[in-house]
Design a protein that fits this description.
Layout (H helix, E strand, L loop, with lengths): L2 E7 L7 H17 L3 E7 L7 H11 L4 E5 L3 E3 L3 H8 L7 E6 L8 H15 L3 E3 L6 E5 H6 L14 H11 L4 E11 L5 H22 L12 H18 L3 H14 L1 H11 L1 H36 L1
Parallel strand pairs: 1-2, 1-3, 5-8
Antiparallel strand pairs: 3-7, 4-8, 5-7, 6-8
Helix pairs in contact: 1-3, 4-10, 7-11, 8-9, 8-11, 10-11
Protein name: Glycosyltransferase 2-like domain-containing protein
Organism: Pseudonocardia zijingensis
Pfam families: Glycos_transf_2 (PF00535)
């Protein structure tokens, strides 16, 4: 097996870091038992260094052939590094990323909804990918350095820097895979406010701008698939119908949303109970509506960035 370097950005002294490190210790032990080797590089200084800079710094310090990025609020499964090392036995593979697991969240119903939504999307998108995820993702170190690493200037706060990296890798001819079996438990305690702010300012707006910048506005990768677009449309139609007092149309839109996402709502009900599954439908609608609201702002950011770059 090849040498892995696990990079954990932790310059903001996250309280979840001890749990993250303990899980990595177990994963490294499992890898060594299988005949592999890994080092763990925790970037915890200087304090409050931006996450992109912390990851880039860790990758430069790494000595392994493959850099495995793990967020400080993720507990990797014991077999995660074994799976990653085995996958990179294929010399044609450039990068690989995994998924959150379906363990009930410690952070309440909003956190459970977000983590299970991520799990559901990634579990149904295994195989070749056009993007990258740095919560639990691995990339050949030389390919990462050749691509310039994460864009520290464009993304000074956590945003879509990993998606941007994936787009640049693919443009350079890289092969990226999503392996749903490579999993970790997410420890983040989401709130409704943090969900909306993240979906709009940290994800939606910069994601739209990124897609336009790379000429991939029609991409169907992960959260941009036809099912997600149709769900967003159903939410917009439903809200519009309520505003003009058309209950039948609103009911039809709700039925469409339920039909399009019945698998996810069943997962919510199975893991969190029917009450939280019902709440999850509402949270899902908020998630989609926030994404729709971000589109014009994302277009405006793209036009602004193009003027500045010109």
């Amino acid at each position: 097996m090849i040498m892995l370097s696990v990079v954990v950005p932790a310059t903001d002294a996250p309280p979840t870091l001890p749990a993250c490190r303990a899980a990595l210790h177990r994963a490294v032990a499992a890898l060594e038992a299988a005949g592999g080797a890994a080092e763990v590089v925790v970037v915890d200084a200087p304090a409050f260094q931006p996450v992109c800079a912390a990851r880039n710094s860790g990758a430069r310090r790494a000595s392994g052939d493959v850099v495995v990025f793990v967020d400080a609020d993720v507990e990797v499964h014991p077999d995660a590094l074994v799976r990653i090392a085995a996958a990179f036995g294929d010399p044609a593979l450039t990068a690989l990323f995994g998924s959150y697991d379906d363990s009930p969240s410690r952070g309440g119903p909003v956190a459970a909804f977000r983590n299970l939504l991520h799990h559901h999307v990634h579990q149904h998108a295994g195989g070749p990918a056009q993007t990258f995820w740095s919560g639990l993702g691995a990339v050949r170190r030389q390919a990462f350095l050749d691509a310039g690493g994460f864009d520290e200037q464009r993304y000074p706060v956590p945003s879509v820097e990993d998606i941007d990296l994936g787009a640049r890798l693919v443009a350079a001819g890289a092969r990226i895979e999503l392996d749903p079996r490579t999993q970790g438990t997410h420890l983040k305690a989401w709130t409704l406010r943090s969900m909306v702010v993240t979906d709009f300012a940290r994800r939606g707006v910069p994601w739209v701008a990124l897609q336009l910048r790379h000429g991939r506005a029609g991409s169907t990768a992960l959260n941009l698939g036809w099912r997600h677009r149709a769900s967003a449309l159903a939410c917009v139609v439903g809200v519009g119908a309520l505003l003009v007092r058309r209950p039948a149309a609103a009911g039809a839109a709700l039925a469409a949303l339920l039909g399009l996402n019945h698998g996810f709502y069943r997962l919510l009900a199975r893991r969190r109970g029917p009450g939280e599954a019902l709440l999850g439908v509402g949270l899902h609608a908020v998630h989609h509506l926030t994404a729709v609201a971000s589109v014009p702002f994302g277009v405006a950011r793209h036009l602004r960035d193009r003027r500045n770059d010109g």
